[in-house]
Amino acid sequence: MLLAYYLAGLQRRAIRVEELVKERTLLLSTAEARIRAVLETAVEGIITIDGSGIIESANPAAEALFGYEEQEIIGQNINVLMPSPYREKHDGYLRSYHATGVAKIIGTIRELTGLRKGGKTFPLELAVSEWDAGNQQMFTGIVRDITDRKLEEDRILETAELKSHLVSVVSHELRTPLTAIAEGVNLVLDGKAGETLEEQHGILAISKRNIDRLSRLINSFLDFQRLEAGALPLRIRPANPNVLVRETIDNFGRSAAVAGFRITSVLLERIDEVDCDADLILQVLANLVGNAIKYGPGGEIRLTTDQTASEVRIGVHDEGRGIPEKDKDKLFRPFGRLSSEGAGSPIQGTGLGLSISRRIVEKHGGKLVVDPSGEIGTCFSFTLPFKVSDHRAWESKESTRGG
Amino acid sequence: MEGERRILLVEDEDDIAILLSRRLESEGYSVTRVADGVQAMQAAMRLRPSLIILDLMLPGGGGLSVLRKIRRSYLTQSIPVIVLTGMQDDDHKKQVIEFGVEGYLQKPYDPAELLASIEGLIE
Q1: CATH classification number, B6-122, choose in 3.10.180.10, 3.90.320.10, 3.30.559.30, 3.40.50.2300
Q2: Complex ipTM over 0.95
Q3: Which among A49, A183, A346, B23 has the fewest CB atoms less than 10 Å away?
Q4: Strand partners, B81
Q5: Chain A residues whose beta carbon lies within 8 Å of the beta carbon of residue B93
């Protein structure tokens, strides 16, 4: 009786074990099927190697990428997929990783060169993970062909170089005829080609003004291109922001008064010196004050300085007609000039001033923004961090910019 | 030579050369115009002008090599040179200034500025 009960118990247990095994087997085969499906359909090449670099498996994408059948490369050293000198070095990398535990590639994404069957190389991106197969370490690498991306990058670089070359050639080619035009007009205006009637003089004066404008435009255009290409190095020295503001006011004093403006300042008395290229910051200030005069009906232009723990802020407030919210982005775009409607006279400028100013400030690690200035007018202000960050500072050492 | 204020104008652009000569002559200078580096060097040694105005973009050799020769020859090394250039390149400017030029003006030049530089250099 007892025995029968015991046997029945055993049987029940055996059935349960059997069911469990079935269940686990099913689970395992499901997991395997899932992994297989992933491997088979992955767009990236997936290759697994053992601790000594021998290929254990390669998915169809890897076969296509390197041009081998799976059977051809299984059992081979992974270094057959690498060109020299990486091929010779790879075993050493593996050994040094086993010895030191210091990984160079694992856990990162690296751009490397792959070698196809037949000897052709191609750029690839590789991510490697490491896993434990019970008795030994395994590595799985995921490989992506980045030929197209590289071609695109090269194309972009080439276009940028071409653009920069074109700008410098074109600006030289424009200057040559412009010089002759300018001297011709100037000679007549200066009375070197005989007397001129007042009416003729007036007409030529307009020509001269526009020759000067075109000349400024060519200069700005080249400056802008240099800033875009990062080719305008900063000459960083400590400068007192208040001194820069006062110098700007001095420079504009008379012409501002003539145009009906009063330039005032509210300066933080004990302001700290800031690392900057003073010439370029003066150019930014001249641009902002110049704009206030150009676009405003007259009144006060107030320059302010202030500072926080990390940066200085310089502001230019005007009493002009303000800038509609929708136009604020447009303002900083090259040639994104606003309509001159409502301004006193037709606006003469290059349309590059603000975009150049913004880039100069950004090169210093600061920001140039525009805000409403209280009830009326506009305030352009920019920040300058006290210390220009390291990756920018090197530029000043390489500086070759003339005065 | 005494009292003569002769300027050697080295400029390959005819239109600019014609107009600038007229400007300089109207200010009482004698002007000799040449259009390339070889002529420039010959004229500089033969005439020993009071001043040389040098365009840097010249056919064959270029303005920089002319400048180098002017500064090397004992006949010409003390003649003041004003460079007049259509280039806007800071590296280039630095290179030119290292040769020791007395003036560096960009095209289109401001006539008043050019004349002031010339007057400052010719006693």
Answers
A1: 3.40.50.2300
A2: no
A3: A346
A4: B52
A5: 402
